[in-house]
């Protein structure tokens, strides 16, 4: 390949991109002018080369790969990328911490965002979830406050445990997610060995229009392992980009990470008596009652050639669904379906879907979404940009997702502030996690992890935290109180 010649952004040749055009003066100085297009373009681009980072999930690693179907589930969904054993679909993967900024450490205790974009022949499909199976809140209006409480204090500009716990004791539906966060799962030792959950309940729809509720799960083929808090803290100082480097180097060595994709499936008849856990993302579905069904495997096999272009500009949203997969009346899901694309419109511009990392591989014809900043296509030429034109070359699509499924409305329901109050049901699954999943070593470590975060918070708030976890299991409160007394004597 011949060596490329330096040019300006619009192609004009440049002799030396390292030298300004100046009029020399005595003493080694020089006068520059606005006529030095290379200098002006270089400086102005530098001032603009940072885009707004994500408010949450700013620090991330990513890679390209493929998804291969290993178990045909055409009886459950018409989504083509999930049907036909051996069927392969390109994917883009991104995993991030939640609270930290772009320069923060990888190995902090935090919920990881787990995002996969499938480039299918029916359009892009995104699974945008977390590395734990539940979330902190179930009312979307609390989402901004949740994240503010996990970030920097508006006065000190530092993370603040008082702020953190003040939020959670007043929104105790978060207790289940907190049990996961402060357990060993809270500090993965490698991106290659984290779990991924779609978290929300979705619908899978067949060609005939029959639907079932479902949840998506990614499980790594490698054993799931974690850092101790001591090793994580040490690594945050030694190499704050440890997870990023680990993923990159593994792919470079051709030790490609692999995850299996599974679904849990619930029949509509079962859903009628299942209760609020159907759409409540602070709760999980029992694997015993709703076993995992294998769908396929995802293999990451290609590092990005340019991180900014391919990963920083990647835009994921749970609103990206292909025919055969549909939304449900989960308020958090519906809010995310608006909020995520809106964040990308702010960060990347209205035409972010035309960027290479987000561009569909199937034909796209959306002439009513045109113009705006950053158009990278022919912008539909002279095709009509108004609906129901007899001159338009476009024709309607017939897709399974057009089938409407009516959700039952509660009797005597009314539109208003219908908060789901926290009750004993919210403590059942956290109690199961504590008693049946954690072993004694994990229990002691969990108490230590939480206790060290409440040592310096106000006494009343500290007691509120202990009281909240005592509702999960009385022994938790006892162990935390004992730990507090032990610390006060040191």
TrEMBL record:
<keyword id="KW-0575">Peroxidase</keyword>
<keyword id="KW-0349">Heme</keyword>
<dbReference type="InterPro" id="IPR020835">
    <property type="entry name" value="Catalase_sf"/>
</dbReference>
<feature type="active site">
    <location>
        <position position="130"/>
    </location>
</feature>
<keyword id="KW-0017">Alkaloid metabolism</keyword>
<dbReference type="GO" id="GO:0020037">
    <property type="term" value="F:heme binding"/>
</dbReference>
<dbReference type="GO" id="GO:0005777">
    <property type="term" value="C:peroxisome"/>
</dbReference>
<dbReference type="InterPro" id="IPR024711">
    <property type="entry name" value="Catalase_clade1/3"/>
</dbReference>
<feature type="active site">
    <location>
        <position position="57"/>
    </location>
</feature>
<dbReference type="GO" id="GO:0009820">
    <property type="term" value="P:alkaloid metabolic process"/>
</dbReference>
<dbReference type="GO" id="GO:0046872">
    <property type="term" value="F:metal ion binding"/>
</dbReference>
<dbReference type="InterPro" id="IPR024708">
    <property type="entry name" value="Catalase_AS"/>
</dbReference>
<dbReference type="GO" id="GO:0042744">
    <property type="term" value="P:hydrogen peroxide catabolic process"/>
</dbReference>
<dbReference type="InterPro" id="IPR002226">
    <property type="entry name" value="Catalase_haem_BS"/>
</dbReference>
<keyword id="KW-0408">Iron</keyword>
<dbReference type="InterPro" id="IPR011614">
    <property type="entry name" value="Catalase_core"/>
</dbReference>
<dbReference type="GO" id="GO:0005739">
    <property type="term" value="C:mitochondrion"/>
</dbReference>
<feature type="binding site" description="axial binding residue">
    <location>
        <position position="340"/>
    </location>
    <ligand>
        <name>heme</name>
    </ligand>
</feature>
<dbReference type="InterPro" id="IPR018028">
    <property type="entry name" value="Catalase"/>
</dbReference>
<comment type="function">
    <text>Catalyzes the degradation of hydrogen peroxide (H(2)O(2)) generated by peroxisomal oxidases to water and oxygen, thereby protecting cells from the toxic effects of hydrogen peroxide.</text>
</comment>
<protein>
    <recommendedName>
        <fullName>Catalase</fullName>
        <ecNumber>1.11.1.6</ecNumber>
    </recommendedName>
</protein>
<dbReference type="GO" id="GO:0042542">
    <property type="term" value="P:response to hydrogen peroxide"/>
</dbReference>
<keyword id="KW-0560">Oxidoreductase</keyword>
<dbReference type="GO" id="GO:0004096">
    <property type="term" value="F:catalase activity"/>
</dbReference>
<dbReference type="Pfam" id="PF00199">
    <property type="entry name" value="Catalase"/>
</dbReference>
<comment type="pathway">
    <text>Alkaloid biosynthesis.</text>
</comment>
<dbReference type="InterPro" id="IPR010582">
    <property type="entry name" value="Catalase_immune_responsive"/>
</dbReference>
<feature type="domain" description="Catalase core">
    <location>
        <begin position="7"/>
        <end position="395"/>
    </location>
</feature>
<comment type="similarity">
    <text>Belongs to the catalase family.</text>
</comment>
<keyword id="KW-0376">Hydrogen peroxide</keyword>
<keyword id="KW-0479">Metal-binding</keyword>
<dbReference type="Pfam" id="PF06628">
    <property type="entry name" value="Catalase-rel"/>
</dbReference>
């Amino acid at each position: 390949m011949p060596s490329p010649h330096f040019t300006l952004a619009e192609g004009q040749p440049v002799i030396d991109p390292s030298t300004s055009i100046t009029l020399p003066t005595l003493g080694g100085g020089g006068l520059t002018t606005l006529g030095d297009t290379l200098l002006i373009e270089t400086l102005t681009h530098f001032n603009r080369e940072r885009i707004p980072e994500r408010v949450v999930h700013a620090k991330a690693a990513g890679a390209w790969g493929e998804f291969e179907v290993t178990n045909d589930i055409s009886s459950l969904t018409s989504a083509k990328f999930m049907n036909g054993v051996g069927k392969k679909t390109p994917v883009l993967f991104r995993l991030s911490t939640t609270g930290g900024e772009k320069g923060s450490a990888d190995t902090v205790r935090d919920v990881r965002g787990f995002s996969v974009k499938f480039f299918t022949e029916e359009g892009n499909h995104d699974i945008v979830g977390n590395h734990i199976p539940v979330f902190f809140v179930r009312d979307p209006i609390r989402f901004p406050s949740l994240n503010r409480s996990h970030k920097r204090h508006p006065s000190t500009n530092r993370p603040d445990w008082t702020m953190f716990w003040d939020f959670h004791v007043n929104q105790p539906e978060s207790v289940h997610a907190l049990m996961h966060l402060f357990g060993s799962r809270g500090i993965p030792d490698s991106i290659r060995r984290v779990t991924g959950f779609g978290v929300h309940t979705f619908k899978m729809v067949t060609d005939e229009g029959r639907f079932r509720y479902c949840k998506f799960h990614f499980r790594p083929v490698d054993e799931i392992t974690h850092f101790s808090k001591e090793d994580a803290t040490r690594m945050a100082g030694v190499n704050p980009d440890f997870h990023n480097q680990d993923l990159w180097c593994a792919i470079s060595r051709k030790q490609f990470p692999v995850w299996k994709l599974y679904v849990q499936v619930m029949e509509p008849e079962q859903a009628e008596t299942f209760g609020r856990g159907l759409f409540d993302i602070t709760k999980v579905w029992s694997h015993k009652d709703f076993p995992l069904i294998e769908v396929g495997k995802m293999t990451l096999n290609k590092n990005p050639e340019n991180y900014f272009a391919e990963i920083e500009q990647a835009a994921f949203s749970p609103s990206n669904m292909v025919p055969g997969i549909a939304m449900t009346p989960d308020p958090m899901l519906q809010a995310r379906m608006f909020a995520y694309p809106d964040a990308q419109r702010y960060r990347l511009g209205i035409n972010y879907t035309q960027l290479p990392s987000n561009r569909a591989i199937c034909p796209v014809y959306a002439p009513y979404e045109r113009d705006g900043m950053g158009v990278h296509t022919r912008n539909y030429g002279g095709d009509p940009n108004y609906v129901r034109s007899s001159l338009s070359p476009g024709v309607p699509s017939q897709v399974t997702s057009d089938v409407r499924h009516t959700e039952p409305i509660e009797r005597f329901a009314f539109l208003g502030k219908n908060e789901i109050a926290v009750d004993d049901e919210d403590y059942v699954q956290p109690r199961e996690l504590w008693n049946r999943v954690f072993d004694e070593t994990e229990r002691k470590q969990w108490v230590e992890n939480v206790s060290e975060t409440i040592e310096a918070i106000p006494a009343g708030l500290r007691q509120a935290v202990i009281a909240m976890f005592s509702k999960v299991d009385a022994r938790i409160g006892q162990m935390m109180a004992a730990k507090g007394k032990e610390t006060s004597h040191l």
